[in-house]
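Pair request: fold both.
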Amino acid sequence: MKLRGKVSYVAGGGHGIGRGIALALAREGSRVLVADIDAAAAHAVSEEVAALGVESHAMPMDVTRWGDAQRLCRTIEERFGRLDIAVNSAGVISVQRVEDMSEAEWDRIMNVNAKGTFLCCKAAIPLLQRTGGGRIINIASISGKDGYPGLAHYSASKFAVIGFTNSLAKELARQEITVNAICPGVIRTSMWDLLAEEWRSKDEAAEESWQRQVLAFVPQGRPQTVEDVGDLVVYLALARNLTGQAINLDGGLTSH
């Protein structure tokens, strides 16, 4: 229970990687607020957290709205009195070539993935300062290190998260607040199910496409898991002298 006594939030905690992070933090004793635009999903994950024996709370949240980001941190302060670990995991994806992409779709991806990270961090900083320090952990992507066809808008948003993370880490370095990003690789979530469907060959089943993507992309030849991401979040929550980094969790796919 390495995080006993700590308080965390996970924005985008209702599904996939966010859910895995919330459960990993709870297993180490952290109290967790689960926020997600899908209120029912946030509530379900909060119940899973509570079943692990730690206090939890769920709330609906649209990370693109400054008022929601403020409400998130106000709720944490009212219920728990402090914030130690801020995890910004909300994200969306689609597959479109640039010449076919609408301005609205570009804005949707950038607003959730990049602006949402900015707003959540901006709201969390004063509360972390009042706590006396803490951790900000942003979920980026290997697409924030390398671009892929059909993902120009998504890659742009995740490159933005990495640059923002590095800059913010330098701003907060003397305040005992570390800021890091995790760049997940090939993880079986709804996002990769979408990619497997979009990239499947003619007459190829979705499951066959998924297996082919794993073998084609990952040097280790196996996918990563949400549990892997949760373990790395716990490590970063404990690390005092690691900041400003974008850590690849991708089975050797990305080398920079």
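--- second member of the pair ---
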Amino acid sequence: MIRRILFATLALAPLAIVLHYVAHVSETVEFVLSAVALVPLAWLIGEATEHAAEHTGPGIGGFLNATFGNAPELIIALLAVHQGLTEVVRGSLTGSVVSNLLLVLGVSLVAGGTGVLDRHSSFLAFGLVGVATVLFLVPSVPGWDGDPDRRSLEVLTVPVSVVLLGVYVVVMTFSLRRHRALHVASDEEIEAWPLRAALLALGLATVATALVAEILVGSLEAFAEKAGLTEFFVAAVIVAIVGNAAEHGGAVVVAYRGKIPLAGEIALSSAAQVAVFLVPAVALVSWLIDPLSLAFRPVELAALGGGLAFAALVLFHGRSSRPRGLILVGGYAVVVVAFLLAGER
């Protein structure tokens, strides 16, 4: 049923593109429509990647999942970099990590109920997010005084990004076999699409995502103004959730089916992947467009560190339950309020 709805709502992408270039509707309508259209596109990218990975084996499959699984967030971030919306970029990235840590994991535990999480995988993800949060302090602390986008901080961001990507490569190399085994043991067997069909769907979905994301970013400022919200809040909450929508839904559905260890891995691995792969990748690729500094605001680092500590404390014993899930969702609600009250930098 859900798959049919997602397939049907793929029509929203061409609708959003046509309305933008032909009908010239209001920017508020464009933002809402493009945000909703990104959800089935993100799902299709994940679906096509999974089917392609069935043909390529675990090595290339892991690379495809790492690369294209984050495609919507990466495209949104780079388009925002191109438009000089640096606070939007940083907000959407930190918001993505926190929403995975608290919101996605929390809703998954509520859907799944009582069970046991994979403590090894969970605390590995916690460790990666912790390392990233500490390294983010290097360009962030100097950015709390003066211009956070000054050249010296952009340069300081480069070694931090390189270290984070190095950590990601090392950890992914050692954990790939273990994660692959967990997915094979836990997930349902799927009838893989032909490789050519999977790659064609992946390419078309990525192109459509780029076009829709451009509309989303272009209308973000107008939407924020009309809604009475800051651009930072819209990016850190709304855009972050939309960019992760497919993974969010996937984790909840898997948990509802009783596969709680897999659901926990999806949520926490997504948080870790954004922190140690997507963030530094955006920072390094931005040098081809307009260099981006990883000078995060205190509220963003507090949300990262606090959300990490809170999730680790709640899941310390590796047990899942609905009350624990509700506690995590409550923690995310606190973060949303903090982002709302933070205002612009």
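Observation on the second member. The CA atoms of residues 113 and 141 lie 40 Å apart.
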